[in-house]
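Q: Can I see a sequence and its folded structure?
A: Here is a first one.
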Amino acid sequence: MKSAWGSDDPTKAAFPFLHGTALAEAGHEVQIFLLGEAVNLMRDAVLNSVTPVGWPPMKEIMPKVLANKIQIYACGACCRARGVLETDLMSKNAKFGNPQIFVQLTEWSDKIITE
């Protein structure tokens, strides 16, 4: 799943985490790639302040993401531009991502869908 939505649209920002958790709990392998404003969700202060409309706050969603071992990639260039550090990622099973990783995830997803 890919998302560029951040705290400016909390409901859309939460969707990859909510949907990813539902898919993982149904037995699917899920990976999330964040870019643009979405990488700010890797900061605890931002994550803890985001509450989507009609859903629990992100600070309650993230433990479920972690429990389901969902790998998160945060665009490295987007993180550098916004001051998101590796220490922000560590507690969230997140790693810096890049365009090549995004392409690999897309190809991996396409392969699964066509099998």
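Q: Show me another, different protein.
A: A second, unrelated one:
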Amino acid sequence: MANITTQQLADLIIGIARAQQAIVEGMESMKAGFKTTHFAPSLDNAARTRVTTRPLTLQEFPARVLLQCLGRGGPKVEQVARDLEALLAGQSPTAAAAAPATPAAPGGAAPSLDMT
């Protein structure tokens, strides 16, 4: 079995989120209001964006990536990889963002997926 890197896993998670985004956009084009009425509340539940008392876990991570895909800019692979690395190391992504292991990109680091 091949060893997968954090960067490859981040690419895979973003690719899956983009495929899910395409399905949501298709549903929205068939039934206007689907995204805001039905999908957004369910995705917020899965991402647990309103729960501020516990740290981000790997279970919520893919839903948060999908939330970013649905936004204007979309997720950055480098930031997703950093947040994933922090989660796999047992840290919260906000703590990892405060002390990045890699140099920050020009113009500052991208925001973390931790939406608390």
